[in-house]
Amino acid sequence: MGESNTRIRFWSGLRTIGGTIVTVEHGQSRIVFDFGRCFSPAGNMMERGIAELTDPVADFLRLGLLPPLDGLYGEKPLLAAGSGLRPAGDGHLRQAVFISHLHLDHMALMGMIDPSVPVLMSEESLRLYEALEAIGEGVPNVSGRTFSSFAYDQPVVCGEIGVTPLRVDHDVSGACAFLVETPDVRLLYTGDFRLHGNHPEWTLGMAEAAKRRQVDVLIIEGTTLALTQDGEDDGDSSGGAGLVTEASVAERAAAAMREMSGLAVINMYHRHIERVEALCEAAIAAGRKPVLEPDTAFLLRLLTGREGITVLSESPAEGFVPVSLADINAAPERFALQNSFARSLELLRLRTEGGVYIHSNGAPLGAYDPDYAALRDLLRRIGLNYRYIGASGHAAPEHLRLIGDQIGADWFIPLHSLHPEQMELSSGIRLLPEYGKTYCFENGKLV
Questions:
Q1: Confidence band of 367 (pLDDT split at 50, 70, 90)
Q2: Of 294, 306, 313, 443, whose Cβ has the fewest other Cβ atoms within 10 Å?
Q3: One-letter-per-residue 3-state SS of 100-122
Q4: For every residue of 255-282, which 3-state class applies, written as one string?
């Protein structure tokens, strides 16, 4: 296996939902995509206490929470960790890190990368990230680095490797796939995508572009493959006849708000700005005034230009229309209140009997999270009727096959899945890679 061949290695995310980190190298050129982490108790503990760590990069490396990649971290934390890795900036690599979208399982660790290494994301993603940073939701940026952006469909050259970002539909703005071209292979990494969102044409366009380029290797997400075996869908119906479209979410939410005579409460994921705006419109259609948490209101106004946003506040809120808890208690049937899990105890100060709690992909996401049982117990005690009304950000199993078949790659590698072995396409050879192995493309084969 020589440097004249393209080398692919998988560092994380093969049999987990998220945490995908993959490297593609040719000669002295390298790209990395993505740079997040999957859920782990150790990782959560470290991130909560990151302000107390004297050298977070070194500590994350010691615990195995960062991939042991040469040339990606600063010299000082590498020495502290005793890792033996080569530091960034020593000139042995031309490289860049590409972020497909701004979900934590794809970007949570990007602040650990040395500032000398470019980290790029779509223009939409960078705009969203800067807004998130303004409300305190940026990643732990221990290196004090900045981030850069790329345009869809415009190639980015990194030494001998070209990367063309292709827009896809997902449940966060700015998501994209990456078409990677080296001197001897064309590879497509899908990132996360779906066909049942509001923009299926983006995902179909990605697949058509990959087909035209005659992709050799397809690296494809397989999140929903687990659902067909485990039978657990947390109500999001990501596959089969029960598939819930993004377009139907607002309609179903409006119907639920009309049915109930009490307060409507909505728990949603505010990085999905399109959903936030749709649920605000659903509340208005149901004859209710949507009331947002301050951070969500800030994001919505900044990213959409929407004016006249009502925000939960006990005092005047510059640029917003304030509504207090007393205002809501005076006529709860007139309001739809956003309430994230972190603020759920605020519900104890409200008249909630006979109301509805609409859970629309906000945390906690499902029964695997201990907070989910606590949430359901609270709602039962305060008389709020629970309704799950959401839509998955991931392609249904039949849509995974449709996109994979349309691309028609010679080789396909499913990941971002608990059951990648369930991925079957009409053509191509399936490879289930292993950690610690480097795969080389030689004479049209992955070896």
A1: confident
A2: 443
A3: CCCCHHHHCCHHHCCCCCCEEEE
A4: HHHHHCCCCEEEEECCCCHHHHHHHHHH
- The ranges of the chain annotated as CATH 3.60.15.10 are 7-228+394-446
CATH superfamily of 246-388: Metallo-hydrolase/oxidoreductase (3.40.50.10710)
What is the Cα–Cα distance from 122 to 35, expressed in whole angstroms? 15
Burial of 44 from C-beta contacts in 10 A (0-12 / 13-18 / 19+): exposed
Note if the bond before 364 is cis, omega within 30 degrees. yes
Between 1.25.40.10, 3.60.15.10, 3.40.50.2020, 3.40.190.10, what CATH number should domain 7-228+394-446 receive? 3.60.15.10
Cβ atoms of 323 and 309 within 8 Å: the answer is: no
The per-residue pLDDT for 92 is 85
- What count of other Cβ atoms lies within 10 Å of the Cβ of residue 416? 27
* Residue linked to tokens 């349309």: 406
Prediction pTM value: 0.93
Q: Which backbone phi and psi does 42 adopt, to 5 degrees?
A: -65, -45
pLDDT digit string (tens) for 165-193?
999 999 999 999 999 999 999 999 999 99
- What is the b/e burial string over 309-320, where b = at least 16 CB atoms within 10 angstroms of the residue's CB? bbbbbeeebeeb
* Residue 32, Cβ density class (10 Å: 0-12 exposed, 13-18 middle, ≥19 buried): buried
All residues at 6 or more sequence positions from 161 whose CB lies less than 8 Å from its CB, including other chains: 24, 26, 29, 30, 31, 180, 181, 182
Which backbone phi and psi does 126 adopt, to 5 degrees? -65, -40
Number of other CB atoms surrounding residue 119 within 10 Å: 20
Give the CA count within 13 Å in the CB-facing half-sphere of 106.
25
- Across 30-39, 67-76, 301-310, 400-409, least confident range: 30-39
Q: How far apart are CA 174 and CA 299, in angstroms?
A: 15
Q: Residues 99, 394, 296, 108: is their CA dihedral positive or negative? A: negative
Distance CA 212, CA 5 (A): 23
